[in-house]
Structures are given as structure tokens and as C-alpha cells.
Amino acid sequence: MGDMEALRTLKNNMHELNTQISGMRRMLMEILENDEDMHMLYLSKIHAEPAIASDLLSFDTEDAESLLEVYLQDIYATQTRVSLMLNNVQNTESMVMLRLDTKRNYLLTVDLTLTLWTTMITVPTFIVGAFGM
């Protein structure tokens, strides 16, 4: 059962990672959709020329936008990989559970067979004992 515990821990970690990646994806999407946030990404330019901060829309944000879009594509790729690994973990868990179910069914069959044999031996003994009295 140590392997099942490790699998469960891995599955929980994968869910947590998937949630974090989804949050990062949403954050990048919000930044890409908001022009003011895009302009505020130019920290060096704003620091060098504080007067530019009052007129944020005066410069172009294509560089920052293209960088964020590349990061967003990387995040989509990472999220896809995490989803595939999570799917593999769930498939492995299902296979292990099927094997455990098979073993349980085999043990139930053995138990039923032994109970049947015990009953077959006990009933004639009871009949002989009842007539012997």
C-alpha cells in the first residue's frame, strides 16, 4: 500500500500544480487584456522618466505583449503536460484498483468454496447425529 500512498500524494501534487498554472494563466490573460497594466510593465522606462507615468498611453506595448504571449503559450503547454500526467496517474490508479478488485473477487471465491465444502461436510454429520440419538 506504500505505492498507493505515493500515487495519492503525486496526484494531489499534480492537482495543486494544475491549479497554480491555471491561476498564472488567468493572471497573464488579465494583464494582456488591460492596456494600463501593460503600460505599467515598463518599470525601467517609468523609473528613468517619471513624467511618462502621467501619460502611460504615449508608448507602445508590443514588446511586453509579445513576451507575455510567449509566456502564455508556455503556460498552456505546461498545463497540457500536467493534465496528461494527471490523466496517466488516474489511469494507473484505476488499473491498480482493478487488480485489487480482481484479487478480492478471487478471495471471495475461495471463501465461498471453503464455506460450501464445510457445509457439505457438516450437513451429513448433522443428519447422522440426529438419527443416532
From TrEMBL:
Keyword terms, alphabetized: Ion transport, Magnesium, Membrane, Transit peptide, Transmembrane, Transmembrane helix, Transport
Source taxon at top rank: Eukaryota
Gene Ontology CC annotations of this record: membrane
UniProt topology in membrane: Multi-pass membrane protein
GO molecular function: magnesium ion transmembrane transporter activity
Subcellular location: Membrane
Signal peptide: none
Name used for this protein in its record: CorA Metal Ion Transporter (MIT) Family
Organism of origin: Achlya hypogyna
